[in-house]
Amino acid sequence: LSEENQELQEKLKNLLSILNDINIVNQLPLQNQQSYMPVKSLVNLIRLKLDNGTNFIKELELLQDLKLNAEQLSNVEKLSILATNDFPGLLKLNEDLDDISSDYLHDYYLKKNKFIKYFTNFVSIKPNLSGDIQDKTVHSLSIAKQNLLDKNLEETINQFSSLSYGEYFFASWIEQAEYYIKVTNILNKFLD
Predict the structure, then answer these.
(1) What is the DSSP letter of 45?
(2) Spatial CA neighbour of 192 closest among 39, 26, 8, 2
(3) In angstroms, rounded to a whole number, what is the distance separating the alpha carbons of residues 87 and 96?
(4) Quick one: CA dihedral 139, 145, 149, 150, positive or negative?
(5) DSSP state of 131
(6) Residue 15 belongs to what H/E stretch?
(7) Those residues with Cβ within 8 angstroms of residue 41's Cβ, 6 or more apart along the chain or in another chain
(8) Is 136 exposed, middle or buried (0-12, 13-18, 19+ CB in 10 A)?
């Protein structure tokens, strides 16, 4: 009986020890509790903030607090450098694409047909995303727009490169898109 009593007391001490450990973890400061947040959740939050054009430096600091391997820490550093750049977000990139495409088509049609010059003072020209498009240039702009909507910015850039003077007209837009691609490629490395 005393042997069983000692065994039960030992088990009770072990349970009390485990409970004390749990209480210590629950009393950790909020910052240490946040370090347990999974990497995937932080990466998804950074991606959302990038898409919206908002700053994601705080999330990078949280990511850096996690136990990461050397490659992941290197990627956090790369993202920290990139995070200092201003990125307008995908919605603004979409609006800019519409404006630049309209300017490009305006210029394109003026070179093709001087008669259109009169009408362009009253209307804006935009590529159609639906229907059968005969003109190769308008078709390329339409595909570029659809690729942007699908978040396939690399293919959008390729479409602009195929256009005459496309890299000139879309240069600043391409620069913003390349930034987005760099950041998302680094973020994807955390999920591999």
Answers:
(1) H
(2) 39
(3) 13
(4) positive
(5) S
(6) helix 2-26
(7) none
(8) exposed
**Within a 10 A sphere around the Cβ of 169, how many other Cβ atoms?**
18
Quick one: pLDDT band at residue 14, thresholds 50, 70, 90? confident
Percent of the chain whose predicted confidence (pLDDT) is above 70:
75
What the block records as the tokens of 2 is: 């005393």
User: What does the pLDDT average to over 113-137?
Assistant: 63
Q: Which two three-digit tokens encode residue 91?
A: 């919605």
Answer whether 174's CB lies under 8 Å from 96's CB.
no
Q: What is the pLDDT of residues 15-37, one digit of tens each?
A: 666 655 555 444 444 443 443 34
- Contact yes or no for 127/99 (Cβ under 8 A): no
Three-state secondary structure call for residue 132: coil
Confidence class for position 112, pLDDT limits 50, 70, 90? low
Cβ atoms 49, 90 nearer than 8 A: no
Pairwise CA distance, residues 192 & 188, whole Å? 7
Q: Which residue has the tokens 């007209």?
A: 169
Written as one letter, the residue type at 121 is: N
Helices (H), 53-170: 57-65, 70-82, 90-112, 116-120, 136-149, 153-161, 166-169
Helix (H) or strand (E) holding 37: none
